[in-house]
Specification:
Layout (H helix, E strand, L loop, with lengths): L11 H4 L18 H4 L7 H10 L8 E3 L5 E3 H12 L3 H12 L9 H6 L12 H22 L13 E2 L5 E2 L4 H9 L15 H12 L13 E4 L2 E6 L2 E4 L3 H5 L8 E2 L2 H4 L3 E2 L9 E4 L5 E5 L2 E4 L3 H6 L7 E3 L2 H6 L16 E5 L5 E4 L4 E5 L2 H7 L5 E4 L1 H5 L2 E2 L10 E3 L7 E4 L2 E4 L3 H6 L7 E3 L2 H6 L20
Parallel strand pairs: 5-8, 7-9, 10-13, 14-17, 16-18, 19-22
Antiparallel strand pairs: 1-2, 3-4, 5-6, 6-7, 10-11, 11-12, 14-15, 15-16, 19-20, 20-21
Helix pairs in contact: 3-4, 4-7, 5-9, 7-8
């Protein structure tokens, strides 16, 4: 059991990093659930690193010896300990800020080097890694284990039984992790009616509430561009696809529309295959085969004739490695006498109507200028007779691109297009919270709006309500 400590860094040095704001301390439920506290996959090594960089932490560039004697980054060491002891990585980040201001401090201090988690007042575990493993071990293998097997921690904290803290506050823990935290540090502290000199467990909860985001709190629609740390991703459903190069990004997307998001939000998307090449790149594998990179797949040309027929330039072929090619799913082969694999934009010589011919040979009419400007400005218009156009099977009209933000003059609701549907933002406040910008809203006609069926409303998932607030 770590001895009760009055650790200097958790006094007023820490308090200056926590601006006093509207905050209600839930003394019996410091973290909302044991499941959340023990979510070891909440942040990956990349997510921890991005989080440290966001906060300007010295730990972002901090390296030291791991438990096995190998030199590793702070993020790598924290992630490994989280997995070993089945604790949420954010648990250690919050504890480190509460005890030594390690997360927002931009320079190394003796407190960070020697006692960043405040374990045992540095007497039995000194050093970054030693503190981490000792604190994690006692939380998981002693306190939480005892609560599950004996119903009480070594100092008498238990779920559902009131007990008085060292600073004189009666607390009735409502879950195991709360009982464990009071065993680790039996103070309520400044924000919960306890000793005003110390942050203690009220500071822990204040930081947790500021930094923790429940999974899918922000549900970014497909087509959104997010920056997480120094990486940029395209959102597609529950998947985030990293751009491996700026050319891959700039070929189809506006970099001005990238939204910076905290690591705790971005990490909740599954990482998909990287987007390495610009749309419609010509790729050659080490064996000599040539492919068209289109719609996330590699489509092989079956012959020189099929390559030449569509006007591709051999000088534009990119040499790709075997690993890069293996990452790209296979698409349909490109043969002669097909529709151009990039699609065609045709105009009726008689009526002037414009249609998009898909690579599959289907015709989507472009019924409005807004849609043309949004999707087809880069394509050359090819005049064709009504008879030639009629040969292509008609399908639904062309829609706006994923990620397009729209509104109409009469209806002030803001929508985002995703997977062919329009998704209304619950309010302008929600729109701004997501990080989208007013200047990129595109006004469209009611006709264009109604082409897109109504999709799921875009809202913010509220944090789990804490129960028994007075306990």
């Amino acid at each position: 059991m770590p001895k009760f400590k009055i650790f200097l860094a958790s006094i007023f040095l820490l308090l200056t990093a926590l601006p006093v704001s509207a905050f209600t301390f839930t003394k019996g439920r410091i973290i909302e659930s044991d499941e959340v506290a023990q979510d070891q996959y909440y942040l990956s090594t990349f997510g921890i690193q991005a989080f440290l960089e966001e906060k300007g932490s010295v730990l972002a560039s901090y390296t030291t010896l791991d438990i096995d004697g190998q030199k590793r980054s702070a993020a790598e060491i924290i992630n490994a300990a989280s997995k070993k002891f089945e604790l949420n990585p954010l648990f250690f980040l919050v504890m480190g800020q509460k005890e030594s201001s390690a997360i927002t401090n931009s320079t190394v201090t003796s407190a960070i080097d020697d006692c960043w988690l405040g374990y045992a007042s540095c007497k039995s575990a000194r050093g970054f890694t030693a503190q981490l493993y000792a604190a994690a071990d006692v939380i998981t293998n002693k306190y939480l284990h005892d609560l599950k097997t004996k119903g009480s921690t070594v100092s008498g904290w238990k779920v559902g039984t009131p007990k008085t803290t060292v600073d004189g506050v009666v607390v009735n823990p409502q879950n195991n992790i709360t009982a464990a935290l009071y065993t680790y540090n039996p103070l309520v502290g400044r924000w919960g009616g306890g000793n005003y000199r110390y942050g203690a467990n009220s500071a822990f909860q204040k930081l947790w509430d500021e930094w923790y985001q429940p999974k899918k709190a922000y549900n970014y629609p497909s087509g959104s561009l997010l920056r997480i740390g120094d990486a940029i991703y395209l959102i597609s459903g529950d998947v985030k696809k990293p751009f491996a190069s700026m050319s891959a990004l700039l070929s189809n997307y506006d970099p001005n529309k990238i939204i910076p998001v905290p690591a705790v939000i971005g990490e909740q998307y599954i990482t998909g295959q990287p987007i390495r090449f610009p749309a419609f790149s010509l790729l050659q594998n080490p064996d000599g085969g040539v492919y068209l990179y289109a719609h996330g797949k590699k489509r092989p040309f079956t012959s020189q004739e099929s390559f030449k027929q569509y006007g591709f330039n051999p000088a534009e072929i990119i040499q790709a490695s075997a690993d890069e090619m293996a990452d790209i799913p296979d698409g349909e082969p490109i043969t002669v006498n097909q529709v151009d694999p990039r699609g065609l934009l045709v105009q009726n010589k008689v009526t002037g109507a414009v249609s998009y011919i898909t690579p599959q040979g289907e015709r989507s009419d472009v019924i409005a200028r807004e849609i043309f400007d949004n999707r087809f400005l880069s394509l050359e218009i090819i005049p064709k007779s009504p008879e030639e156009i009629a040969k292509f099977k008609m399908t639904k009209p062309a829609l706006l691109k994923n990620g397009t933000i729209i509104t109409t003059k009469k209806d002030k609701t803001i929508y985002i297009i995703a997977d062919g549907k329009r998704h209304a933002f619950k309010s302008k406040k929600v729109f701004k919270k997501y990080g989208y910008q007013q200047k990129y809203i595109m006004p469209v006609s009611k006709k264009v709006l109604n082409l897109h069926p109504q999709g799921k409303e875009v809202d913010l998932k509220k944090k789990q309500q804490k129960k028994n607030k007075k306990k």
